[in-house]
Amino acid sequence: MQSLLSSIRALAVRQHPGDALRCLHLTAVTEAARKGTREKARKKKVKVEVKKVGFIPHNQRDNKINVKRADKHVDDSWKQVPKDDVYVGRYYRWTVYSVAEAIQCHRETHHPSMYNVPNAPLNVEIELNMQGEKATRFVDNFQRMAMIPHKFAHGEERKIIVFTKGNNEIIEAREAGASLVGGVELIKDITAGELLLSDYQYFIAHPNILAELIALRGLMKRKFPNPKSETLGTNLAEMITKFSNGISYSASKDEYQQNFGLISACVGTLDMDGQQLEENIRYLLQDVDTMRPKREGRFINRVLLKSPPSSEQLKIDPFVYVPELWDKSTMKPKREPSGKKVEAEEQDQAVAQQASN
């Protein structure tokens, strides 16, 4: 039987007379060995390219993984109000201070017996709801200059160049404190390369020189004077005062939560009068409120007062100075016809006379 199997596994084949015998191996073991050999040969032919990956920032790693992040909009309205002055803060609502009380608390913290920094800066952090008019739209990041009534040492270098025609406007700009004032000749010096615009932070212009100023649009780019940024106007003294003494701030959306925006700005120092600091905060909040989108709900969610090097942060009520919700009647006032207005006034007068009688 074994001799029969061996004779079957190896067959002698002769194609033509005189040719050598050729053996055909038909065993399964031989076929499996040849198959594995072929696969190994194919794998050797395929070149494996190893790509070198450089450093990847943390905010660009694993973009496909949805990390569950906490909502940055703090809402503690559901928590109970503390009944005394000793409690665990995370279980109760934040205490809302008036601006005067918050300033006094920071002054006590910076007393010579503690931090000993009586002239520490007073910073304001404003948390915004950047949701736009539609659910899929958000307010773009913006940068503005807020006019304040009481100036302070902001520590920034602000060189202002003013473009205008006419002797009266030039004298007005120089008296207001502009770093450089000029007209057509100044534009020619800049185009010739004799003066660098990079040495100046702000550009202000009068409408009477706007036609000649178009030649510098390519050099100024986004800093080109325009009414929206309040760098183009007839009142040069007011604009110069605003950009030299005002509060420069910017609102930026969170990288992972687009409907959360934050503004951090300095409104003065603790050695200033408390009333002056409160007025600066009022003007800053009113300027921020001008960027409010036309939708229902809050735009300013929370305002905190901080004063480094202390880590203490005190919550104040911003709705004392700005409206809490968007009012359609204020944005689009409804005007009554003159006849109805007269009739209403006559009715009010009649009611007043009856009450007096």
TrEMBL record:
Which InterPro entries has this protein been placed in?
Ribosomal_uL1-like, Ribosomal_uL1/biogenesis, Ribosomal_uL1_3-a/b-sand, Ribosomal_uL1_mit
For the keyword Ribonucleoprotein, the answer is yes
- What Gene Ontology molecular function terms does this protein carry? RNA binding; structural constituent of ribosome
Please provide an example of a Pfam family that matches this protein in its UniProt record: Ribosomal_L1
Superkingdom of this entry's organism?
A: Eukaryota
Q: Region Disordered: which residues?
A: 330-357
* Family, similarity comment: Belongs to the universal ribosomal protein uL1 family.
Protein's recorded name: Large ribosomal subunit protein uL1m
